[in-house]
Amino acid sequence: MKEVKTICCIGAGYVGGPTMAVFSLKCPHIKIIVVDSNPQKIEAWNSNELPVYEPGLLDIVKQTRGKNLFFTTDIDSAIDEAEMIFISVNTPTKNYGVGKGMAADLKYVELCTRQIARVAKDDKIIVEKSTLPVRTAESIKTIISGCSSEFSFQVLSNPEFLAEGTAINDLLNADRVLIGGDQTPEGLEAIEALTAVYANWIPRERIIQTRLWSSELSKLTANAFLAQRVSSINAISALCERTGADVDEVARAVGMDSRIGPKFLKASVGFGGSCFQKDILNLVYLCRHFGLPDVASYWEQVIKMNDYQKHRFAQKVITTLFNTVSDKKISMLGWAFKKDTNDSRESAAIYIADELLQDQARVHVYDPRVSPERMIDDLMFLQSVKNGNGDNKLSEKQIRDGLIVHKDPYQALENAHATMVVTEWDEFRDYDWKSIYDNMLKPAFLFDGRNILDGAGLEEIGFKVYQIGKG
Ligand code: UDX
Ligand code: ADP
User: From the CA of 169, how far away is ligand 2's center (Å)?
Assistant: First the structure.
């Protein structure tokens, strides 16, 4: 088996960046070159203001950058030098043409596959790291073999299971690493080469080797199951509110059944992130494609329940505020899709802000990590994917006028008619809620979309509190 001395990773995003940082730390004998077509991103990776916020990431990058970890826009040279190439580019849901709103857009994957085929001057192992629909590896193989017949290219699937906010720990102590490949002698050799890389820090028994398609489908299935748990508890939260049960108590009781387990049962304002919705939509698309409409509808319901939960929360705010938020100051704590990340893709905050802006609210946001430009872009992107005749689309002016972003949370909260918590940032618990109450309009409404302010004694202070799944 050929030893891997140099790895190239195409795509310096939330997956590629942290993954390669950990590779560089754990494999000091391997040169890791991370490339991206976006020069600003590469510049940021070479500075101390990394484009990705992830606890522990900067420490690792500082230790290995310039030693065995490199960030560059020179994609061709990196491809040429590496024996193993990870494809870690973005695969958003298509917002145009065939499969709009459902299928994964593979144009970035295709582009970099063609680039590998054009540049490679020897055999390569190509590893798909992005979340991709089943049988994408097959497309990569077809493109590669159509472009070059001189060299041998092995395609592996090595899906990512890291969760943002805990990426470094997830990579260092992975529950499992999944490597799928062809069951031919060359394919098995490539699987072994990647296994040897991970074996530098992951015990071999946690490295699962499968055939290519099983690996690809396992990733979609894992995310669909996780998202399904969140939608399930969120569905129960609506029932709890009607009946006076407490969803956190229900989740605790249910989770103590060892067959069910306690994780991923936190009722919330709805799941976000770049993976859950996209992966389920992908699964649904695949099922329809393969003539399984009942299976497709089953999984589609997980997304519908999530949409329902976000909508329900926004409507709760509007109805509680006497059926209108027009010209009212509504403060929003959090924009990221979960704590400890600056990623806001598919965050519930975007949908909630959108509904409130449509009702002409002034939404005052504070998030410790997400930039104001990102928030505007998120809202603009949402308008671009809305269907219908445009009645419910906000103009850029409406968005820019209605969304006011603050650096200081207390300013976001001052004189507000109501406050919403949409991300579970730890710091929100430590705020001086008494002085926030004193500076809010009365009655002071607080909508805790993450149920994190239980111990803060808000009702005793005078707040009118709404929590998810509490009657
Ligand atoms: C997910 C998977 O967990 C990870 O394995 C995969 O590689 C990528 O997709 P990520 O999207 O980064 O990771 O975060 P995750 O922790 O899974 O949270 C997703 C969303 O679900 C967040 O919005 C989170 O707030 C929400 N969530 C999660 C809940 O609302 N309740 C829960 O109990 C758990
Ligand atoms: P993910 O969460 O999957 O990591 P990101 O959007 O954070 O997604 O990162 C993907 C990165 O891939 C982006 O920085 C983008 O610029 C980069 N990228 C996309 N296509 C190419 C390409 N053909 N060559 C190099 N980099 C690319």
Answer: 22
Residue 194 to residue 203: CA distance in whole angstroms = 13
271 ligand 1 Cβ < 6 A: yes
Which of 89, 282, 341 has the most ligand 2 atoms within 8 A of CB, as the residue to mutate?
89
The alpha carbon of residue 221 and the mean position of all alpha carbons in its chain are separated, in whole angstroms, by 16
Q: How far apart are CA 54 and CA 22, in angstroms?
A: 12
Protein residue whose Cα sits closest to atom 6 of ligand 1:
161
**pTM of the entire structure?**
0.95
Atom of ligand 2 nearest to the CA of 131: 3
How many CB atoms are located within 10 Å of the residue 391 CB? 7
pLDDT tens-digit profile, the chain (471 residues): 578 999 999 999 999 999 999 999 999 999 999 999 999 999 999 999 999 999 999 999 999 999 999 999 999 999 999 999 999 998 888 888 888 888 888 899 999 999 999 999 899 999 998 777 777 888 888 888 877 667 889 999 999 999 999 999 999 999 999 999 999 999 999 999 999 999 999 999 999 999 999 999 999 999 999 999 999 999 999 999 999 999 999 999 999 999 999 999 999 999 999 999 999 999 999 999 999 999 999 999 999 999 999 999 999 999 999 999 999 999 999 999 999 999 999 999 999 999 999 999 999 999 999 999 999 999 999 998 887 666 689 999 999 999 999 999 999 999 999 999 999 999 999 999 999 999 999 999 999 999 999 989 999 999 999 999 998
Mutate which of 276, 352, 423 for ligand 1? The one with the most ligand atoms within 8 Å of its CB, which is 276
